[in-house]
Amino acid sequence: MSEPEKKEVSDKEKETAKQDEKEKDTAQGGKKTPLGDKAKPGSGKAKPGSGKRSGTPSKGNKGAADKGRATPKGNAKAKTKEDVKAPTPVPAGETEEEDEGLPEGCTPLFMSTKSQEIYSCVCDTDVTEDNPIKVIMKSDIMEDFRMRAAVCDFHPVKQDVQDFPSDEIVIVYDPDFKFGQNFYIALTEEAKDKILNPLGPEGEGGEGGAAAQEEEVVYKYTPPESKEWVSQGSEKEIKEENVVENRRRIKISARRIRKEFGAPCNFKDRNVADAKDAYIECTAYDDRTYDLKRVELDKGVQAVPELIEQGTNTDWRYPRNANTQYYPREYSETEKETVEKSTDLQTFAKDMVPRFELALQQNEIMDVFYIDWLHLGDADGSFGNKADNHLKEYQSFTDLQFSKDRTITAIQWHPTIKGVVAVAVAEKLSFDERIDHCAKVIMTPSLILIWSFTDPIHPQLLLEAPDDIYSFQFSPSDPNIICGGCYNGQVVLWDISAHADRLKQQRGNNRNKKSNVLPGFEDPNALKTPVVRYCAVSSIENSHRAAITDIQWVPDHMELNRMGVPQENRSLQCCQIMTCATDYSVLVWDTRPAKGPGQIITTKESDKGPKNPIGVPNTFKHLDLSWKPILKVTLHKSEPGGDHSPTKFTIQEKQGDRGSLGKAMDGVDTSKDPAMGGGYYTKPGSGKDKRTLQSVKTHFYVGTEDGEIVYVDWMPQKDQDTGKIQTPKPDFYHSIHDGPISTLQRSPFFKDVVLCIGGWTYTLWKESVNVDPNEAKRNSGPILQSSASTVKLSAGHWSPSRPGVFYIAKVDGSVDVWDLLDKTHEPCMTQNVSPVPITSLYPFPVSQKQHLMAVGDSAGTLHILEIPWSLRQPTANEYTGISNYFEREVKRRAFVVSRWDFRELEKREIEQEHKRKMGIAPNIQLSEEEIEYRQKQEYAAYVDEENSFLRELGLKDDDEPLPET
Length: 965
What we know:
The chain is α+β, with helices and mostly antiparallel strands. Helix content is 23%, strand content 20%.
């Protein structure tokens, strides 16, 4: 250290000593010095070892102050390495506790978004983690008290703010909510100065700070001193690691006759059948369920690197950035003419044309990409010659917290991820029981459980709903979007895009385990199942008035406008949903935002912004609580007595079949159409930019709560009686089932064949049977109707691979398998699955060689059954055989109708013959002229009666002519 620096240090030390003497004198006289007042705000109460600058020197600077007092002026010497001692460690519980806890004189404060905007302290914008301090004028807060009173966020500290002596108040942003709120406020001058000047009153640029920076601290090395070894118990751990024999040794005594000592051994062959257990074969096999878990592993590692010698034959070049670009070689016009006229080219073309045509013919005749090895044995047409002819139990899922003692209402397999199945569970309560236990029902969560074969114990996801879900479906175009129908009539949408990777993970990876986690420090939330909240729900006043019993996505190649006209969907993304409930209506919903003035069209790509506070994605934010249907189909009855209450419905168009797009024509402008009864209007020009799908059939089947099958058109028409635009009356309906319709599904191979299950019977309907619209009700009966079962039927489903097979579940816990090629009067197989009633079932082809069927019961258990080979592999020409069977049934139905007509005509002839024999005159058939003459006479008599009635009332004189009608 140079001489000027030495002098400066000694002067400062002496000056500090003088200030200490003044403070002592002041303390004895009971007076405060200005220095003491200045030191108070910066440090509060000075503590030894605090390390903060104040009027009294701290423990760390005490030595320097003493030296300044003892050293005369002008004789100060620089400190040597021997004089400087190591810094004293800070006592625990003083400074560190002050830094970690809430500063003295401060209190937590919560500021809402509105208040942040008023005081210009918006989080992460005006105040950040690097610059958290904000100074607010006291007058602004007092003005806010006057304007908003108790709504003001400063109201909890109102009295402290009013008593604050300064005009500026300091608040600090707490981004991590360390003290419970997003801000904390300084309510004293000491706390304010401590926040604004964390280094003391003088700051970093003050005199004390400069002296501390200029002071050179040199640490003296002190060699360690050897001490006696004190036992801390480690020798016990070493002793426990040693291997010690704790069990007694086994003693074996082997005896042999003395004369046989050293005798040679003679081995001979023996038949294994001569003695019992003479031969036991222990063959090795691959155990797929084997899983070894090493809980603790002790290893000895030598801390010496292993010597490895490796070589390579690749020369290392200096890396550099380089690129190469090639240009195609092109012939000039002259060269092209020369090549085309050359004799070699013409000769080559003549030689290659026959071989090329032969290759094309072979490709047309046979499939060159067909792999015979994979399809070996599939052509065997014998029935039931492979595998066992029964359903095998493959897996079962149940959750003791969410699904136990609750009924499974719907099952859906994930369209793209194998081994993932979702089920909806609901309380087993009637309507009256729900009213009686409404408090319990409200507090019980309504969930959809998504299971995976990789974890049969814990569900992968839980979808939260506002009420119990009775039907739901994955979107065919985007499996991460799920729609569901609630018990209260609302439609719900979920977006599970953020959890898609969790469903795709293999066994063991979905638990978020870390290999470097120490025992006792595991994350308690690692094994918790995430709960996904719904991102949109329909408006309660525009939803169904009863529980939604069926829900379906409209195929991605079509969409319906507000007048029910099917049009082309150019985006090829499913955007519309059809729902039905027992409130006599079928509704059509559109998930796209309205295109009105001022509307901001949001898509899934706009989900990159900030999410809601509870983490709900913004995919359908524009629909939440304001979603309304675009089309309402009301099922009126042809005669008075109430309307139809639909439980299931099915349309003819299915996902993936886009044959109707080829027959589409330009749309018709329906802007002049009047409004529907529900108040829906079509926008001008809404149909001009889209093509109308003329080949789409707008009639669809509906199953009702009374066991009726209704065939109706969803396009509204003008009523001839009232003149309103409303849903037309059904073409026909049949009360053929003796219970509510539980299943109404079209065959995956024949889109005009429908399976209907309700009560104790099932029926098969063919849509093309209705030939004459005037006699539709008479000619539209089922082509096959089963006899009444002894047990009520609860659900059913077509086989996804065999055209003639379908499955029916019953309330006694069994499943019937029907094969129309085998027999039609009884099921070909019946198998018991559950001891409680089965509520739903869904077969699904997992792979070409494995088909599984999910069966849900009323106890909350999901059973996964493996379908045998005979029920998943179609027989030879099965499609043709089933098609011929349906055609024969249609002809049989037409023959039965003709016989009905013949018997009716025969009955009339017999009655006429009987009347003729009894002397009763037969009915006279009048001609058209005679009928017209009689009608004129009846009209004239009616006019005379009307005139006489008006004369009696005094409303007409004899001379006054009647007004023309």
